[in-house]
Amino acid sequence: MNVQLVRCISVLLTGVLFLTLGDSALSLLITIVGILFMIPGVVSLVTYFLHRDQHPMFPFAALGSFLLGLWLALSPAFFISIFMYVLGGVLTALGVYQLAMLLMSSRLLPVAWPLYLSPTLVLLLGLFVLFNPFEAASLPFIIIGIGCIISAFNDLVAIYRGSKSKKKPTTDIAIEDAEIVK
Description:
Layout: H1 3-21, H2 23-50, H3 60-74, H4 76-105, H5 117-131, H6 139-167
Helix pairs in contact: 1-2, 1-6, 2-3, 2-4, 4-5, 4-6, 5-6
């Protein structure tokens, strides 16, 4: 499956999650991320203890991953304040990335000006969340949800346009006069 499509679907589902669950979505998301950090840590630690004779060095990174995951899972409220800034930064970076991709693709294909609106909106939403993360209790979650959905829609359009341009047959260039250089 196309990596861009998987990323697009993930961003879309994240946006829907934020819009439907509101404030509780962030706590749930942080807990899930904590569990996802714990899993490889536990697997690595168990593997180390089962095969200690083959692995002479203790896996400190696995222990760190497990402890961070445990901390995230047990106290997500601590990370919510930090997480708002991270999500605002992610939306800002995503908007800048999408604008840069549109600018780069405009060198090869004509890009209609309305396509610049959604990445600009994502960028502005990200900046708003960065500078006003706690203005209203659920407003940032709604903004992040809308931003994710807009970003996913924009990526879908880009994927569709990219697949259309790849399917166009290329024409051979006729070389009329050439000489061999030695």
